Amino acid sequence: MKAAALEGQLRASEARNEAILRASLDAIILMDHQGRFVEFNPAAEAILGFSRAEVLGKPLADFIIPERFRKRHRRGLVRYLATRQGPVVNRRIEMCALRANGEEFPVELAIIPVAGSDPLLFCGFLRDITERKQAEARQAVLMNELAHRSRNILAVVQAIAARTFSDSRSAAESQPIFARRIEALLRSQTSLAPEREGGNIADIVRLELEAFSERVEAEGPALALSARAAQTFALLVHELATNATKHGALSVASGCVKIAWSLHGSGEGARLHFSWREFDGPPVKRPERTGFGNIVLEKMVRDDFGAEPAIEYAPDGLRYALDAPLKAVTES
């Protein structure tokens, strides 16, 4: 009777454990003392791309550990079995894992020796942190851009003052004009962080260049950008405007900027074309070093818009253009 009761309790316990394995959103992987898969739950299948039947009994290192780390993994396992000590056991770590398609991706991993197991078993809890890492990287870029803007703002104010007070107007006439331009510049800073629902491309351009409105032509259809695209686009326009103010067409009285955007195609093939052209400015040349501005103008545009920007350092001013899938800038 007691034996039957114990057997029933054992079956119930096994059923609970199986339910936990199947319900977990994190990958749960059981490895034996020889480094072979013993268990591989459905979340592990979904995250890593291998089937349970495909991996059970096989060496874990050959499947989910990038090749350059496999020797270290095997040495660490041997050392732990000998000393019961290791730098990655009983703690959370971040590392790269390998999917079935060969893609490496960042994971958070906790490895726990299973108490009472003989030979020893290890239980690994693995979580895909790709989205978190992308968000952290983007936040770092935005913080760098904020610092970059802070350094640039004084140069922009000085340029506005120099142009305003060097005209033929008197000081009394120039002062209210200067004040209006500074107010416009301050309003433009709000474009760094558009509202959660995104922003209109025309509003971003207007806010950023309102202080130079008499020498800037902007033309294009109304287009609502997603929140992320609006933020990237605001950074892009700010970088172009700052460079034009400090070194380009807006740094001299004769210079001007023409901005245009248009939509082409329809459905899945619809695209946004954006161009920035400077005229009658001083000679420009490609920067000798790659700074934060290049990250915004090139890398962020590639990453966020799926577009390859075209940059031309023409004799009388910069030319910048991008052609992006419409859904990349309008869909969240």
Q: Summarize the biggest pleated sheet.
A: 5 strands, antiparallel
Could you give the count of β-strands? 12
Number of helices: 11
Shape, per Cα inertia axes = elongated
CATH first level of the largest domain: Alpha Beta
Specify the CATH homologous superfamily of the largest domain: Histidine kinase-like ATPase, C-terminal domain
- Percent strand equals 15-25%
Please give the order of strands in the largest beta sheet. Answer: 2-1-5-4-3
Low-confidence stretches: 192-196
End-to-end C-alpha gap: 62 Å
Helix and strand sequence: HEEHHHHEEEHHEHEEHEEHEEH
Structural class designation:
alpha+beta
Q: Rg from C-alpha positions?
A: 29 Å
Helical residues, percent: 40-55%
Please tell me the total number of domains: 2
Mean pLDDT: 85
Q: What is the CATH topology assignment of the largest domain?
A: Heat Shock Protein 90
Can you tell me about this structure?
This protein is an alpha+beta fold. The protein has 2 domains: 10-128, Beta-Lactamase; 168-330, 2-Layer Sandwich (Heat Shock Protein 90), CATH 3.30.565.10. Helix content is 46%, strand content 23%. The protein is built from 11 helices and 12 strands. The strands form 3 sheets. A 5-stranded antiparallel sheet has the order 2-1-5-4-3. A 5-stranded mixed sheet has the order 7-9-10-12-11. Strands 6-8 form a two-stranded antiparallel sheet. The longest helix has 37 residues, at 130-166. It is elongated, with a radius of gyration of 29 Å. Residues 192-196 have low confidence and may be disordered.
